[in-house]
Amino acid sequence: MRSIPTRLARMLSVAVFAFALLLPGWTAAAADPGESNDVHVMVPPGDAYNMLEYLKGHNWTPPPGIKGGAVYQNSDGRLPDCAGAGGLWREYDIYPPGPAGRGPERILSCHGGTLVVRDWYTPDHYVTFDPFIWGYNRP
Question: What are the pLDDT digits (tens) for 91-114?
Fold first, then answer.
């Protein structure tokens, strides 16, 4: 039998996923659900939310020591269309590079488009993507 916190966490994950499907701009159809690397809904870490807030408050200029602003092509189409709306996906690191390099975590945001597109988090360098859902799953 699972512990109560485990069951509550699972129920919360299902509720967040169900809510995310109702939000405008959500797309899961671009991902093949049969693959292990698809779009899913999990809670991005607090550091990712903090960096996203910083970027939005500083005209998308990352803090010193953090790389960001490069174009992410989304060539596999697993994120919502940004280029079709006149925008570009931009990628931002969450942490400064360490001895082993930049690390796998990134924030992806659509810039300059007319389409309302959610900001996304990838914990594993573009293998999976999690949407930021403000006010509902912030740690």
Answer: 999 999 999 999 999 999 988 877
H/E run at residue 54: helix 46-57
Distance CA 5, CA 35 (A): 28
| Rounded-to-integer distance, Cα 79 and Cα 130, Å | 10
Note down the domain range covering 124: 4-131
Closest CA to 118 of 73, 87, 80, 85: 80
Dist CA 42 CA 12 (whole Å): 10
First-last CA distance in the chain: 26
**Coil/strand/helix, residue 11:** helix
Residue-averaged pLDDT of the chain: 74
Please, which residues have CB within 8 angstroms of residue 132's CB and are 6 or more apart in sequence?
44, 48, 49, 52, 118, 119, 120, 121
Residue 13, domain CATH: 3.10.450.30
